[in-house]
Amino acid sequence: MKRTWWKESVVYQIYPISFKDSNGDGVGDLRGILSKLDYLQDLGVDVVWICPIYQSPGHDNGYDISDYYKIDPAFGTMEDFDELLEGLHARGMKLMMDLVLNHTSDEHPWFLESRKSKDNPKRDYYIWRKGKNGGPPNNWESYFSGSVWEYDERTDEYYLHLYSKHQPDLNWENPAVIRELHDMVKWWLQKGVDGFRFDAIAHIAKAKGLPDADNPQQTPTVRAYELFSNLDDVHTLLQDLYDNVLYYYDIMTVGETSGLGPEEALCYVGDDRRELNMTFQFEHMFLDAASAGSGKWDVVPWKLTDLKEVISRWQTVLHGRGWNANYLCNHDQPRAVSRFGNDQEPYRIPSAKMLATFLHMLEGTPYIYQGEEIGMTNVVFDSIDDYRDVETLNYYEEQRRNGVPEADIMRAIHLKSRDNARTPMQWDAGPQAGFTTAESAWIRVNPNHERINVEEAIRNPDSIYHYYKELIRLRKEHAVIVYGAYELLLPDHPQIYAFTRKLEKSRLLVILNFSSEEPVFEWPVEAMEPEDIELLISNYAPQEHEDLLNLPLRPYEARVYLKRY
Ligand code: NOJ
């Protein structure tokens, strides 16, 4: 297997609006990030992924870009950006930008022109159609509720938006659009950025003729999915981008591609494909969805056996043929410890460390989302007025219109709102968690910042933060953590997730108790004899007089053993 820097890296994701405010306006900014570069370096991460910072009216916190070549004034200036890039490079870290190529803002000059008249030269930069039978051109539903079509009186036509109506989809069938986007990607690469996370890249091609979806047994949000996701044309377009632009730079790329399994992912990341290095897969993000056809809000408890099945499939199919991007949360998902661990005391700390062990011991590049390294949790705001996310607000409105009781809607929001991940980074126990000096931040801070914050985490040698540091350090020391082949043990065990990793003469045994109970782990002697082994890391001190052959695990205990042959 080819060894490269982006396989050996650990990525840290920053959601800039919520990371650190430097000028007291309640909104995070680039100088705020600059002030925390030493913190990131100390944690040991190699690559920083920054969610969009381009000029934007901010209907979707920057994922609605109105100028790809400018920094939004709320985040700072291009000089601040240059300083940030230099600051990262000077500390041996790299910068990955988040680029939205599927759509722009409805305030982008291309769209302002496009909507003016049917014969405007920019008309075909977007996807316009006439209505059908007095309604929209087809029955597709947007990710953010309602039709994907927005009627525009001026030309008596509809434009397509898979996300909010402020995010019109670009028309990738137009070569002029492709040229503009390629030039822009090149421009950022020439500035020296080290890679891209390509937002919603699975959707840049749509089914020819934009036909109606005809699987009404599924909920509106998922039924048209296959008509605008992972189509063959996406691959042709990405290969074109690769051959014309990406190929010439030593960068890392990751695409956001929901709705696929590992075999299909190989079409994006296969070593021979000339497309992307990694994709973000979503199968484990839907384990708590009530059914394959239901949307994200219909939540049921997830099962460990399902998690093992999904992750093991990705680990084994991609091994030697592609590369995994591993993550447990991001700016669109609930907090990992609240969802896959246990955010109630006394379990928050051990379960966050157990999940961190899981994340770092899988084959693939680990992505840490800001605040995960201190065990930040979901938030419970009682009133919808405290929520800011466009998806959450649209869902709330739609459910109210459908007559769903307020309490039921809020329960789903508490579990699944994207704002769970977007409350400000908790730097200290002071007012506004040290995020801003303003009286209030753009979104309320989680009240638990008095307990859960960076200052406390750095001070306390047993903290989740120090545990992450150690995991990151170990990854740099042992090639088996990066490149070792994965093999699942105990596929049917309801509480224990155990697996081995094997590379040349090294073998790892990873034992994770995903429960608050105390199951006994029977040592798999055939996978690794329990002699001459080294305990690389654990979230508990070993007990005295342990019987490794029948090892009682404590709540959320994690152990990683190394053996050299
Ligand atoms: C995926 C991004 O991660 C999400 O935050 C955004 O709302 C949509 N794409 C639309 O750009």
What does this structure look like?
This is oligo-1,6-glucosidase. It is an enzyme of class 3 (hydrolase). Belongs to the glycosyl hydrolase 13 family. It holds the Pfam family Alpha-amylase. The protein is α/β, with parallel strands linked by helices and 565 residues long. The protein is built from 17 helices and 20 strands. Helix 12 runs parallel beside helix 16. It is globular, with a radius of gyration of 24 Å. The mean pLDDT is 96. Residues 60, 63, 100, 163, 199-200, 256, 331-332 line the site of 1-deoxynojirimycin.
Question: What's the topology here?
Answer:
Elements: H1 5-8, E1 11-14, H2 30-34, H3 37-43, E2 47-50, E3 54-55, E4 67-71, H4 78-90, E5 94-100, H5 109-114, E6 128-129, E7 149-152, E8 157-160, H6 175-191, E9 195-199, H7 220-223, H8 232-244, E10 252-256, H9 262-269, E11 278-280, H10 304-318, E12 325-326, H11 336-339, H12 348-361, E13 365-369, H13 390-401, H14 406-416, H15 454-459, H16 464-477, H17 479-483, E14 485-489, E15 496-503, E16 506-513, E17 520-522, E18 533-538, E19 550-552, E20 558-564
Bound molecules: 1-deoxynojirimycin.
The site of 1-deoxynojirimycin has 9 residues, from loops.
Pfam families: Alpha-amylase, Malt_amylase_C
Keywords: Glycosidase, Hydrolase
EC number: 3.2.1.10
